[in-house]
Amino acid sequence: MEIILLMEGPSYGKVGRSPMVNKRRCRIPIPLLPVILVVSCVGLAPPVAHATTVVGIRTPEQVVIAADSLGTARGYRIESTQPVCKIFTVKDTAFAIAGLVKDPAWNFDAENLTADSLRRQNRLTETANDLGERLTAMLGSYLERLKKGNPYLYGKLLEEQDGTITSILLAAYEGDQPVLIGMSFRALEETGGRIRITAIRITCPGDCPTGVEYFFLGERRPIERYIAEHGEDRLLPASSGAPFMVRLVIDGGSKQVGPPIDVIVIDRQGVSWPARKEGCGGAPAP
User: Fold this and answer.
1) 104, 31 in Cβ contact below 8 A?
2) What is the value of pTM for the model shown?
3) Strand 262-267 and strand 108-109: pairing?
4) By three-state DSSP, how is residue 38 classified?
5) Which of 58, 65, 191, 230 has the CB geometry, 3.0–4.6 Å to 180, for a possible disulfide?
6) What CATH number is given to the structural domain containing 138?
7) pLDDT at 134
8) Is 193 helix (H, G, I), strand (E, B) or coil?
């Protein structure tokens, strides 16, 4: 396995695009996660998470993050949905996550790894550095095991979402300005079977010359069509633009993205929730 960590990404905030091998019948209790989980009958079934929409906007005054709420669990002829949390807070920071989130059977948990990193570090850049190392290593190890244990799901995971496995937004108000960092972890199998994990990071301020940056995680095709037709100016102010873009995807007919929309704001006054469903708002469950 080869691990590559890139500290910068493109200035435009596009972080992420984002039958069973064993055909014997089985019944597996499936916990609903904040994403689609693809479950097999191999052991305790490694989940593969996809299809969510998270939008983050950073301006010189604030960070706004909006996310849909649909969680879908899929297995062998099994599918169920329910509202789930996709935005979390630790201390005075917030994070949102899309893609592969957790697999208890294989000891993979990107949500709690992110929360743990935020607790350990004092600044957002330190958290991003820590995640760049720890999550990259965790993903590499997970994919190596998945490749051997369930090659079908492994292939689907690398094929979908342009190889983007997990994407994360980190937000905080540091010093006298809001900070938003987007991280995208992508996997590629190279000649000879080596798995390369690439971590791409975009930081604003830093990689955003105008002081404004847009981050799109998961399903975003309706958003891209809207921007191509109308431009980005109509997406401000951020407090209305972020949930508007999530709504575009929901109204676009995706069966894997759905209401309600949670919205968090981080500014000089601290953390606030213009929209939040019951049970969400804190750290992820262990």
Assistant:
1) yes
2) 0.81
3) unpaired
4) strand
5) 58
6) 3.60.20
7) 95
8) coil
